[in-house]
Specification:
212 residues, mainly beta, Immunoglobulin-like, 5-stranded antiparallel sheet, 4-stranded antiparallel sheet
Length: 212
């Protein structure tokens, strides 16, 4: 399943601003048409952010749809092959929140095997994270919710050889489990779960596509 489809599934439920300590400031935000139907979005890196949620709409007042959850080091995104002669509105917000201990499921682990939990996590972070392999090559994750005001939970993956974690799935608030179908090359990845809180929304930017 593509990562965009995975991460967009619960974004509307996660759209409420939730504070968890001080929030990173909303980044400056620009949108540029690089062809009649391609929009490139740019924002400055925010060292306090754990990542970004990028959203779009076709009207200034929404409804808004999650385009992608992005890792903290990413500062641009291309929205390609859009509908011609159509307005597109964009906004972005940072996210943060405490993370669980990391679990890793080895490539040779048989179905029904649970990866052991890793080191201790902050008191409000999800606890007791387990990842259990199923016969269909999917992973079933379960954890204990220890936060009172999260906007949802974000499952993050660090693929073999990758330097950092990247968002891969998002849930509703108060969830304590989710499932993930592994893509080729994801066996042996490390996983963690984040109790999400969001920073303020950026200003909305708009571009109208041209003729195809």
């Amino acid at each position: 399943m593509p990562i965009i489809a995975r991460t967009a599934v619960a974004a509307l439920a996660a759209a409420t601003l939730v504070g968890c300590g001080s929030s990173p400031p909303a980044p400056a935000f620009t949108a540029t048409l690089t062809s009649p139907t391609n929009v490139v979005l740019h924002w400055p890196s925010d060292p306090a952010a754990a990542g970004y949620l990028l959203e779009y709409a076709n009207a200034a007042d929404g409804p808004w749809t999650a385009l992608q959850y992005l890792p903290p080091g990413q500062t641009s995104y291309t929205h390609p092959n859009l509908i011609p002669e159509t307005p597109f509105y964009y906004r972005i917000r940072s996210f943060a929140g405490p993370v669980s201990a990391t679990v890793t499921l080895g490539a040779a682990s048989p179905p029904g095997t649970a990866a052991p939990p890793g080191t201790a996590a902050p008191p409000s972070a999800p606890a007791d994270l387990t990842a259990t392999a199923a016969p269909d090559q999917s992973l079933h994750f379960a954890w204990t919710d220890r936060s009172a005001d999260e906007a949802g939970f974000l499952l993050e993956i660090r693929r073999p050889g990758a330097p950092e974690f990247a968002p891969v799935e998002v849930t509703d608030p108060n969830a304590t489990q989710c499932a993930l179908s592994l893509l080729p090359g994801e066996q042996g990845s490390a996983f963690r779960v984040r109790a999400l809180s969001y920073g303020p929304l950026s200003p909305v930017v708009e571009r109208t596509t041209g003729k195809d």
